[in-house]
Amino acid sequence: MENEVIEIKPKNMYMQICITQAICIAVILISIVVMKFFFENDFKKVQKWCGENIFVHTQVTANFDEETTREN
Fold it and tell me: What is the pTM of this model?
């Protein structure tokens, strides 16, 4: 009985991942356009929600004064 060595070659998944991402972006954009043209009231609600929750400006108020010491 002989032992067979099976070599597994890794697949290049770069193109499949890019295609999947492009399809997801296209679906999102198409759904936004459909909502904008056919469901205007709902689009305004979603637009207001995005403005309040997603596109909020972040303000950094912390003071980052670090002391630097040198050892001679």
Answer: 0.55
